[in-house]
Structure to design on (214 residues):
């Protein structure tokens, strides 16, 4: 289970992949596999949460890293890059951005 | 604090707003205010989490609703629509999608 809070000084990655609906399942599975095999073992990884849109057109990874530096170090890792390249090939485009959590609202 | 889990049968809304950097703060504040004043009190609202990208170009709301039906009922609420219209005016574009959580990975 992943927790979203304004109190943890972490870097949040939200990466939205746009896909053809017939590629959505393959991309979600590839991202889960890449996370288990590679990302999860890299310094600063906290969590990844793979989401599929009900309209079939998006796969979004909501991930948490200890810091932006850890995230950028991952981008330079050759094994991680290979997995990201395979993910990119299944998508029409992808838009990764790092975020901070501004506010959390509960019922 | 919001929890992301594959076990809760909820609807996740991820809404990515693209903004001019000088509008990012105003939009994040408006979304927080709209959530507190309106969304939070509507049937089926579970949580909203307002994020700002470190590059200044995005504001992303990661929100949870009890069901897609509750989310769609909110879209038809006149007061909610007024707030969403004001948010839309601060953004260049916005891309809301409903999702299910496929997998959660922790270190």
């Amino acid at each position: 289970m992943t927790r979203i809070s304004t109190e943890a000084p972490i870097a949040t990655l939200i990466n939205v992949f746009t896909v053809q609906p017939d590629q959505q399942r393959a991309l979600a599975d590839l991202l889960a596999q890449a996370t288990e095999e590679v990302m999860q073992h890299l310094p600063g990884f906290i969590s990844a949460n793979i989401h599929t849109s009900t309209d079939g057109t998006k796969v979004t990874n909501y991930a948490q890293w200890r810091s932006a530096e850890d995230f950028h170090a991952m981008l330079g890792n050759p094994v991680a890059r290979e997995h990201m390249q395979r993910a990119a090939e299944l998508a029409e485009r992808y838009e990764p951005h790092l975020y901070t959590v501004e506010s959390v609202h509960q019922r």
